[in-house]
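Reviewer 2 asked us to include a model.

Predict the structure of this chain.
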Amino acid sequence: MLQSQGTQHGGRTPETAETALRRLSHYLLAHYQKGTRPVRDWRTTTNVAIDLMVYAILSVDEKNQVLTTYIWYRQHWTDEFLRWDPTRFDNLTQISLPVESIWVPDILINEFVDVGKSPHVPYVYVSHHGEVQNLKPIQVMTACSLDIYNFPFDVQNCSLTFTSWLHHIRDINLSLWRQPELVKFDRSVFMNQGEWELLYVLSRFQEFSVKSSDSYAEMKFYVVIRRRPLFYTVNLLLPSIFLMVMDIVGFYLPPNSGERVSFKITLLLGYSVFLIIVSDTLPATAVGTPLIGTYFVVCMALLVISLMETILIVRLVHKQDLQPHVPEWVKRLLLEQATVLLCIRDRKKFSRSRTQSSDISRQVDNNDSTAKLNHYGCEDPRECEMVGGARLAPAFAGQAEGSPLMHGVLREITTIRQFLEKREEFRDVAHEWLQVGYVLDVLLFRAYLAAVLAYSITLGTLWSVWRDA
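Predicted model (structure tokens):
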């Protein structure tokens, strides 16, 4: 269908206007040669002015390094063989002609990697001065060097290079339709509801040549976009932060109980499942890894270190009969110097409260052990050796010397006393290791907390700088 703009007088009828359109179309295309550049002098350069407006960011494929955008593309040039006198054609000043019927410049995008699903616009507008306007929407799939190191706070800069694939600059030259400032901040048609937001569009004209041959003209548009990080912050960062906070809180469980080990193993398994779930969300490239991937790996390493520290403390404070004495240098380093450095107050009171239950059980065991000696009249097993013979002397004065029964009783009493003293020594050793484990647990916890805080502050500062850049 042909469209026109003209001036209709009072006596003009629609049939007359339609006849003018057909006459003008036949006049322009009857002897038109679309295979040659539309200039009367071959030395004349055809100037093509182009313009671009970004309508939407459809997708960003980090793995294949492909950006898919939907743009409104406009170009116009002067065709010296498409001119007419409006007075001869009912004052028609503009007409639409089929794009297949006229010469069109071979302007392409260098970064094209695939043909998008662009709608076909079959017409162009032609004015009576010979100016041709070609307006069409294009779905552009272009190669782009995507830098995902700052994901999800990344900013991407992708270029769209328009150039004539065949004609040199002396045949076809390019220029910008509008002023660069108007193109830069034009978001009038941009759909601003997706994952990406358009920051600005820069434009630059340049010439290039291949192997010292003739130069080509090209117009570059730099589309600068920024990812909205809210979705990834809520679904990736916050769950990881919550798990790390729970790991820190787990240090307040008693170190001599097995619940802490079970709790930290559960956290480690939960974090592993979390990483499996979010692995498909993270962008993947063969060039590099985003910083958030390193963040997850470091968090996993911190959880493993925390579990190893818990296993070490539980091993130290666990009561064993064959535990050696605490070395003197460990006592001086941890029980004296470290307590002052860590500002641990009421350590002895804490130790007494933690061993109160063991003292009670020890008294019960001692009472059970000495109950067998009550028929000798001994309230303390240690008195049996000293006073046992004196109490039995009146009754067995004549049989005491050389009696096998009395010697057996004395040996049993001595064995019981040595056993009780040995058990008391083992309990003292276990108590010392419990104190060492408590101080070491506080020391490692504060070192772990300092490492987590330093790591979190560093990442937060970097992401804040990138977000506000």
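The mean pLDDT is 79. Residues 18 and 261 are 89 Å apart (CA to CA). We have added this to the supplementary material.
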